[in-house]
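Researcher: I'd like a structural prediction for the single chain below. Treat it as a standalone chain; there are no partners to consider.
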Amino acid sequence: MGDRRRGPAQPEELARRRASRERDTQELTVQERESLRAQHWMRCPKCGVQLDEITFRGVKVDKCFGWRVGQVPGPSC
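Model: Treating it as a single chain, here is the predicted structure.
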């Protein structure tokens, strides 16, 4: 048989995932949350470079200037 892609997650699956994330979040201390936020706030999820806020078609978006289209994101970008 051919490779079948999974369709949208079922409501039960979404509820299970949501409950799991809520448990994970509740287990974090206030200090851990603040530390994670400070480490990741306004950072590119692909390369970690500081994001810049720009206006694109009238909407403010966070833009990474650390890598270019076609370049593989990584520590050297």
